[in-house]
UniProtKB/TrEMBL annotation:
Species this protein is from: Idiomarina abyssalis
Protein name per Swiss-Prot or TrEMBL: LPS-assembly protein LptD
Location of the protein in the cell: Cell outer membrane
PANTHER family: LPS-ASSEMBLY PROTEIN, LPS-ASSEMBLY PROTEIN LPTD
Function field: Together with LptE, is involved in the assembly of lipopolysaccharide (LPS) at the surface of the outer membrane.
Length: 757
C-alpha cells in the first residue's frame, strides 16, 4: 500500500480555529431544534494537500516514521483517506498490516457519520473501523446516540450497547437503548435487537426486535396509539399498524378496544396504478354490548377513479353503515355526525368535442326514520351541443332512467326525457345577452300502490328564457389606495306554462337552495319530476372591488324574483294549492376580504310580506395563518321539517407559543336553549415529541332509541369524552394539527369566503 506522509511543515496550511471546530463539532449540542444537527462539512475548512484515490494523508506536530513499517504521529494529528477524516492526539499507522490505531480521544467523519470517542481502530484492507466509547450523529438526519462499540464497514454501521434518539440535549425526552443497532447508509430504516424504549429515562417497553425510520420514507410498523374516553363507549385505545406493501400500495389495520362496547377492527387499503387510484375501508364490531338488538356494527367505504382514455373516465364512491346511529356513535372520515344521508354513485363519463354522455347509478340512504328513497338503476344521459354560428347554437339533451324503491320492490318507474333547445348569445365588453327556447318532453311508466300515481304519464312543456347583463367598471380611490370597481346589473324573464303533475311520483327531485346566483336559474327543483311554472322577472345587481394586482377583496350582490303570476307547483299534493308570493324573498350575499387577516361572508333571504328572515348565515374570521385563526358564525332557517333553527358558534385554533397550540369550538342552539357541540384541545410540541389532549361534549342524536340499552326517554342525551395522544417524532411522522380536530367535529370547520383570487 502506498502511504504519503505530509511533513510537519504543512501545519502552516490550516488554522487552529479550523482544527478546534473539527474536534468539537459533535460535542456541542444546543437545546433548540435547529441546533440539534451539526454543522455540515466543518472538516472541509481544513486545507489539506489533495491525495490520490486510495492513499492517505497525515498531518501532525511531530512524527516518527520507520520506512515500510510503522509511523507514529503525535500532537493535533489529522488523517484523511477517501472522504474519511480523523482528528486525534496520537495515531499509529502500520503500513505492513494496513492498520491505523488512534487513542487519547478521537473525532471521526466519513460524510455519513460523525463520531467522537476514546479510540479508533481502522483496518484499511477490509475497509472496517472500530470506535470505542463514542458519541455518534448521522450527518444528514436528526439522529444521534452513544455506543460502547461502533463498527463501520461497507456503508453499514453496527452499534453495540448503544442508544438512539432524535432529541437534542443531554437528557432526551425519549431514546431507544439496545444491545445491538444496525444502520445501513443506503437504507431509510434501522434495526434494533433487545431494545427498550425509554421516556424521560424511564423504560416503558421492551422489544426483542424493532425497526425504525431514520428518514421520512414509509415503513411497515406500528403507528401512534390513541387513547380516548367517551360516556357512550367508555375507555378507548386504538393501535394502528401500517403495511408498506409497495410504492403504489399500502394498508392500515387498527384494532380499537372500547370498554363499554367491545373491540372494533378498522382497516384501510389504498392503491395507485397509472390512471387508476382508489381506496377501500372496512370497520367492523361483531358484538356491541350497549345495544339490545342489531349488535353487529359496521361501515364500509369504497372509492375509485379511472381515466380509461382521454375521452372516457369512471368514478365510484359508496359508503354503507349498519344502522342509523353508527355515525353518531363512532364518527367517520367519510360522513359527518350531522349528515342526514349517505350518497353512493358509480358513473361512466364520455366527453368529446360536441358530445357528452354519462351512464350512472346512484343511491341515497337516509339516516333516520324516513321513507326510503329511490335508487337510480341506472340512468343514461346523452347531451349534444352544436357549435356556435353567428351567436346561434342548438343542442339536445336526452335521458333514460329507471328508478327502484329501496324497500318496496313493487314501486318502480321508468322516465324518458328529451329536451331540444335553441340558444342565441350576443356579447360585447360592456354587456351580453342571451335567449333560450326549449321544449321539454317527458314520459313516465310507473308502478306504485299510491292510487294518485298514474301508470303512464306524458308531460310536454315549452320554456322561454331571456337574460341581459351589463358590465361596468371604474377606478376608485379609497384612502391612499387605488381600486377597480365593477358593477353588473342583470335582468331575466322566464316563462313556463302550468301543468298539474301530482300524478307523477317523486323519484330524484327536491327544492333547490336559493342564493343570488340561484335566482337566475331556469328551474326551482332539481331533477325532472316537477317542473315549476313560471311567468316571472328576476333582477339583481352585483358589485366587486379589485386591488391593483387584481385581487378581489369585496363582492356584494342583491336580487329578487317578481312573479307576474303566482306559482302553484309544489312537491306534494297536500301543498299543491299553496301559491308563492308575487314577490319572492330578497336575497343578498356579501363576501369581504377586509385585509390579509380579516374576512366576512354573509347571506340572507328576507320575506318582505312576513317581515321575517327565512334563511341567513354569517361568518367572520380572523386568520393569521393556517395555525392561528378565530371564526364566529351565526345561522338561522325557518320551517325546516316544521322546525326553526337559530344557532351561534365559534371556532378557534391558536399557537400560544412555538410549543403550545390550543383549539376549541362551541355551537349553541338558541331555539332550544342548549349546547349542541363543544370541544377543546391542547397540544404541547417539542422537537422530538408532542402530547395532545382534548375533551368534547356533543348532543347525542339517538335515531334508534328502541335498540339502545341506555336511552332515557324524554331527556336530551349528551356524549362526553376525552382523548389523549402521545406523538414521538423520529420514529414515525404525524403532520396532523389541531385544525383537523375542528374539521372532524359535528359541524366542522369551513373557510367563510370564496372570492376569485
Amino acid at each position: 500500500m502506498l502511504l504519503r506522509f505530509i511533513t510537519p511543515l504543512m501545519l502552516l496550511s490550516f488554522t487552529g480555529d479550523a482544527l478546534a471546530a473539527l474536534q468539537n463539532q459533535n460535542v456541542q449540542q444546543g437545546m433548540a431544534c435547529e441546533a440539534s444537527r451539526p454543522a455540515e462539512n466543518v472538516i472541509g475548512s481544513v486545507q489539506l494537500q489533495q491525495t490520490e484515490a486510495g492513499t492517505i494523508g497525515v498531518e501532525s506536530r511531530s512524527a516518527e516514521i520507520f520506512a515500510d513499517e510503522k509511523a507514529y504521529f503525535t500532537g493535533n494529528v489529522i488523517i484523511h483517506r477517501d472522504g474519511q477524516w480523523l482528528s486525534t492526539s496520537k495515531a499509529t499507522v502500520d503500513q505492513q498490516k494496513g492498520e491505523i490505531i488512534a487513542s487519547d480521544g478521537i473525532t471521526f467523519s466519513d460524510g455519513y457519520l460523525n463520531v467522537t470517542g476514546d479510540s479508533l481502530f481502522l483496518d484499511l484492507n477490509e475497509d472496517r473501523a472500530e470506535l470505542y466509547n463514542s458519541d455518534y450523529r448521522l450527518q444528514d438526519h436528526n439522529a444521534r446516540g452513544h455506543a460502547e462499540r461502533l463498527s463501520l464497514s461497507r456503508q453499514e454501521v453496527l452499534l453495540q450497547d448503544s442508544s438512539f434518539t432524535t432529541c437534542p440535549g443531554d437528557s432526551p425526552a425519549w431514546q431507544l437503548r439496545a444491545q445491538r443497532i444496525q444502520i445501513n447508509e443506503t437504507s431509510d430504516f434501522g434495526e434494533a435487537w433487545h431494545a427498550r424504549f425509554e421516556l424521560f429515562d424511564v423504560p416503558i417497553l421492551y422489544l426483542p426486535y424493532f425497526n425504525f425510520p431514520i428518514s421520512d420514507a414509509r415503513k411497515t410498523g406500528l403507528l401512534y396509539p390513541t387513547f380516548d374516553s367517551s360516556s357512550n363507549s367508555g375507555f378507548e385505545v386504538e393501535i394502528p399498524y401500517y403495511f408498506n406493501i409497495a410504492p403504489n400500495m399500502d394498508a392500515t389495520i387498527a384494532p380499537v378496544y372500547m370498554s363499554e362496547r367491545g373491540t372494533m377492527l378498522k382497516s384501510e387499503y389504498r392503491y395507485l396504478f397509472g390512471q387508476n387510484a382508489g381506496q377501500f375501508n372496512l370497520e367492523y364490531l361483531g358484538n356491541d354490548d350497549t345495544r339490545i338488538e342489531n349488535k353487529k356494527r359496521y361501515l364500509w367505504h369504497v372509492q375509485h377513479a379511472a381515466q380509461i382514455n382521454p375521452d372516457l373516465s369512471f368514478y365510484l364512491d359508496a359508503t354503507e353503515i349498519s344502522d342509523d346511529n353508527y355515525l353518531n356513535d363512532f364518527g367517520s372520515d367519510f360522513a359527518g355526525r350531522a349528515d342526514t344521508h349517505l350518497y353512493r354513485v358509480a358513473q361512466l363519463d364520455y366527453d368529446n368535442d360536441n358530445w357528452t354522455a354519462q351512464l350512472r347509478t346512484e343511491d341515497y340512504e337516509l339516516i333516520g326514520d324516513y321513507r326510503s328513497p329511490y335508487r337510480t338503476l341506472p340512468q343514461l344521459s346523452v347531451d349534444y351541443s352544436a357549435k356556435t354560428l353567428h351567436g346561434f347554437s342548438a343542442g339536445i339533451y336526452n335521458e333514460l332512467t329507471y328508478f327502484q324503491n329501496q324497500d318496496q320492490s313493487r314501486e318502480y318507474a321508468t322516465r324518458a326525457h328529451i329536451e331540444p333547445s335553441l340558444r342565441y348569445r350576443y356579447e360585447k365588453p360592456a354587456f351580453d345577452t342571451e335567449a333560450e327556447l326549449s321544449y321539454l318532453y317527458t314520459r313516465y311508466w310507473q308502478e306504485s300502490p299510491d292510487s294518485a300515481i298514474a301508470e303512464s304519464v306524458t308531460r310536454t312543456l315549452p320554456r322561454a328564457r331571456v337574460r341581459a347583463r351589463m358590465h361596468l367598471e371604474r377606478s376608485v380611490e379609497i384612502g391612499n389606495d387605488q381600486y377597480r370597481q365593477t358593477l353588473s346589473p342583470q335582468i331575466q324573464y322566464l316563462y313556463v306554462p302550468y301543468e298539474n303533475q301530482q300524478d307523477i311520483g317523486i323519484y330524484d327531485t327536491s327544492l333547490l337552495q336559493d342564493d343570488y346566483h340561484g335566482l337566475f336559474r331556469s328551474r326551482r327543483f332539481s331533477g325532472l319530476d316537477r317542473i315549476a311554472e313560471a311567468n316571472q322577472v328576476t333582477y339583481g345587481i352585483s358589485s366587486s372591488l379589485f386591488t391593483q394586482n387584481e385581487r378581489e377583496m369585496l363582492r356584494a350582490s342583491l336580487g329578487q324574483i317578481y312573479n307576474i303570476e303566482d306559482s302553484r307547483t309544489q312537491l306534494f299534493a297536500a301543498n299543491e294549492e299553496t301559491t308563492t308570493s308575487s314577490n319572492s324573498e330578497w336575497v343578498a350575499d356579501i363576501n369581504w376580504a377586509v385585509d390579509e387577516n380579516w374576512s366576512l361572508r354573509s347571506s340572507i333571504q328576507y320575506d318582505t310580506e312576513l317581515n321575517s328572515t327565512r334563511k341567513s348565515q354569517t361568518a367572520i374570521e380572523f386568520r393569521k395563518d393556517n395555525s392561528n385563526l378565530v371564526q364566529v358564525s351565526h345561522r338561522t332557517a325557518t320551517n325546516i321539517l316544521n322546525n326553526d333553527i337559530e344557532q351561534v358558534g365559534t371556532q378557534a385554533v391558536w399557537s400560544a407559543s412555538s410549543r403550545w397550540q390550543v383549539a376549541a369550538n362551541v355551537f349553541y342552539d338558541l331555539t332550544h336553549d342548549r349546547l349542541n357541540d363543544a370541544m377543546v384541545g391542547v397540544q404541547y410540541s417539542s422537537c422530538c415529541w408532542a402530547l395532545r389532549v382534548s375533551a368534547y361534549r356533543r348532543i347525542n342524536r339517538d335515531l334508534e332509541p328502541a335498540f339502545s340499552a341506555n336511552q332515557i326517554n324524554g331527556d336530551t342525551q349528551f356524549d362526553n369524552g376525552i382523548s389523549i395522544q402521545f406523538i414521538i417524532s423520529g420514529l414515525a411522522s404525524d403532520n396532523s394539527g389541531l385544525i383537523n380536530m375542528l374539521e372532524k367535529s359535528t359541524y366542522g370547520y369551513r373557510r367563510p369566503f370564496y372570492l376569485s383570487n
